[in-house]
Design a protein that fits this description.
- This protein has a domain at about 45-120: Hypothetical protein apc22750. Chain B (Translation Initiation Factor IF3, 2-Layer Sandwich), CATH 3.30.110.
- The protein is built from three helices and four strands; from the N terminus they run ααββαββ.
- The protein has helices spanning about 1-15, 25-30, 70-85; strands at about 40, 50-60, 90-95, 105-120.
- A four-stranded mixed β-sheet has the order 1-3-4-2.
- The N and C termini lie far apart (about 80 Å).
């Protein structure tokens, strides 16, 4: 009982201590924004209205020997993140390349694509006659 009282006093003294954290709501919003962006191919969009929002590129770069090599998938994700920043809900990856090593990147992949807004086409009642 005596220890419980002592613990309560110690913990209540910490109740006014300000909590500081590096977590930021905007960081979470930016990080998870890519979940709203889907990968598409041109042929998969035949029954949709497509608005092009802009060209995007993403890069994966290995900057030191002790870091993992660059990956094409990471370059695609970086392009997807840029598409999300344009409020796109889709991306068409046009090409990915692996440029030769440079002073900046021991290995790298760069992917280019179109950030798009996809809206399914709906048939109106007039079309069904």
């Amino acid at each position: 009982m005596k220890y419980l009282l002592l613990l309560t006093i110690l913990l209540s003294g910490c109740s006014t201590y300000p909590l500081q954290t590096n977590l930021d709501k905007d960081n979470f919003t930016d990080y998870f924004a890519i979940s709203d962006v889907e990968y598409y191919t041109t042929s998969a969009l035949q029954n949709d209205r497509v608005e092009q929002l802009g060209l995007v590129e993403g890069e994966s770069c290995q900057t030191a020997d002790n870091l993992p090599p660059a990956e094409e998938q990471q370059a695609k994700i970086a392009a997807k993140r840029k598409a999300a920043a344009l409020n796109a809900n889709g991306i068409i990856i046009r090409s990915c390349i692996a440029p030769p090593a440079s002073k900046a990147c021991l290995s790298s992949h760069v992917c280019y694509g179109d950030a798009i807004k996809v809206t399914p086409l709906t048939r109106s009642n007039d079309d069904s006659q």
